[in-house]
Write a structure and sequence with these properties.
With 781 residues, the protein is α+β, with helices and mostly antiparallel strands. It has three domains: 153 residues, Aldehyde Oxidoreductase, domain 4; 177 residues, Aldehyde oxidase/xanthine dehydrogenase, a/b hammerhead (Aldehyde Oxidoreductase, domain 3); 320 residues, 2-Layer Sandwich (Aldehyde Oxidoreductase, domain 4). The chain is built from 19 helices and 30 strands. A seven-stranded mixed β-sheet has the order 3-5-1-12-9-10-11, sandwiched between helices. A six-stranded mixed β-sheet has the order 8-13-14-15-7-25. The protein has a five-stranded mixed β-sheet with strand order 16-17-26-27-30, sandwiched between helices. Strand 13 and strand 14 form a beta hairpin. Helix 5 crosses helix 6 and helix 9 runs parallel beside helix 18. The termini are far apart. 56% of the residues are buried.
Amino acid sequence: MSRDAKPRPVPQPVGEVVGQSVPRPDAREKVTGRALYTDDLHLPGMLHGALLGSPHAHARILSYDTSRAKALPGVRAVLTAVDLPPVNIGPVIKDQPLLARGKVRYAGEPVAAVAAVDAATARRALELIDIRYEVLPAVLDAEAAMRPDAPVLHSPPTEGPPNVATHIRLVEGEPDTVWQRCDAVIDDVYETPAQQHVYLEPCTTLASVDPDTGRITIHTSTQTAFRVQAITAEALAVPMSRVRVQVPRVGGAFGGKVESTNQPITAALAKAAGAPVRLTFSRTDDMKMMRSRHGARIHMRTGATRDGRILARQVRIVFDTGAYADDGPFVAAIGSYFARGPYRIPHVSIECFSVYTNKLRAGAFRGFGNPQVHFASEVQVDRLAEALGLDPIELRLRNALETGERWLGGAPVESGTLRACLERAREVSDWHRRRARPSTTAPGKRRGIGVAAVGHVSALLGSSATVRLNEDGTVNVSTGAVDTGQGSDTALAQVAAGALGVPLEHVNFSRPDTDTSPYDWCTGGTRTTFTVGHVIAEACEQVREQLFEHASAILERPVQRLELRPGGVVGVRDEPGLTTSFGAIAGRALYVEGGPIIASARWLFPAWQLDTRRTTVGGLPSMGNGFFVFAAQVAEVEVDEVTGKVEVLEAWSVHDVGRALNPAAAAGQVQGGFVQGLGYALTEELVWKDGHLANPSMSGYKVPGPLDVPVAIHPVLLEHSSGPGPFGAKGVAEVSIVGVAPAVSNAIRHATGACVRRIPATGERVLRALLAREETAAKES
């Protein structure tokens, strides 16, 4: 389907399963502890793996001595880079070895791997490995890394500043000449932190190698069986057909389990040891060795006319991608693409850098670069509203993109529902009353309310699915999509049940296995329900056609008069008593004529190529933009003026979900995304000291607990069915986090008048903002 093609009518489900808050089939096994995760799996003769991390942020490796570790009783294999193929991996830039080769680029980077009879022996062996280093100067600030005299982490660029993995330029209109037409201009610098994914289940892999064929089998906690297969084959220099990946239950991911090195390292250990190896990270190792959200520094300038029309925006974004590029180029692309915000701003100049530093690599994380730029954008829009004397929601409404308008770069907005989201948020939050009441609620306490408008995307890249009718009329659905805990298996089973009109319990949903599952790129990018649901619905449509072909012969009626009815039945319109069951049709197909009823569908989301006639483009990686989705988020806070502590009292999160396949699951996504965004806004931040991560544990890294979460987070689901998602469904997983931090920051400013431009808004930072406000007021008086 062309992105400019007329949208087709949204199909309607058969029966009532779509739109129902059905229980998740895996819920009972999870709450009773019967669910099997990778760390619960055992194979005969299984060994335990462990990784040795670098003690330095930047150093040259001079020599290895693993003899004492190999001599330790119970140790079966010890690996360093010299034992592995000289291959680097990476989704865009091939710059990362499995184990550090030549030099280390961040403290904690894996340098050696051990397999032993138990975890304690493996850890003891790590202590016996002797590696000599030559310590090199480190750079821990992304802006400093671009200076001409900065230490160079990778091959120096042929032009431009050092340590730049990606440089993007996007320009529309005449941004250099339009500022004199603006009646209000806000110019600020914003900073966002490196955030850790804190999935409940640390990264875990169990690998075995067939002694006769050398074929590798991997069980792993991942978001993508097929990317693990490709990366492992690439890193170990074997054909992909020699790697099989199976995915058990997954305890969360949020982007942190996409492009990983732990699977090929574990496979290499299993091959070297001649036995299965399980590598399970401790929480500390996971935090020090895996990845984080990109920290960012954003210089943004926005101008508007006195009637509230936003006219111009200039943005400079610097993403800290850490020691390796990882998904940094894509994160920079998304950050650039959304830096204009969900608004019609005719004159825009955006420059974005993804920069290497001697820190933990940064990669994909829920929102994928959008939370960073939305924080800057939405805080600045609020300040612009104040300068113009306009209500913050009113200013957003005057500039909100509508259906048929164009995003930055020219992509069509096919379902522009931001206005509907903002208007509903204003209504359900009782916005006007709360904004107008006195901010002082008790001595030393001030209360305020803030809003953020959000634009994001559903869909990305390719998916496929197979649907097969069983002999008894039940249905098997197979895809490569991974349910990482968000409940996608349930929603996708509802799609199949709704498309065919069978009870949900008649749908079996297979676990991902690269040997048997149809391809799916990844669970991420708010794409699974939207993209995989699309191909399941397409496959079900093909099954329906086969059902009707057989039913026409059985019922002696033309196909045009047939219809699906709830319960796995094909009937004839206007003849209510004339029906045949799916089981009868399956029997005819299997034993009389035609063969098994089975269908497959595949889809690559049609990407929009940026229109270079309207947008000057430089350095943007090739990637699809997705189907636009919109939300509005409102937060009410209370600020302690003595301590600076911020408490979020209540929140409203309004999302256009297109069609809520499972309303309870969609509401749970909204609430979970808000809580994760609350951590980003107020408490969560990875901190480095002298090149080392200073808080790699749950005692030092503060995620919101039950007492930190608002008593009420109100998820409001709008249903504007549109687009190629199943029954008009749109994504909600990532968009639910994007606007939380700016909504909270705007509420703090409404309460106190102090603008927090760096998150998390800790008590100390809020107090500094309060003091800065008082100093400014004193000077002006």
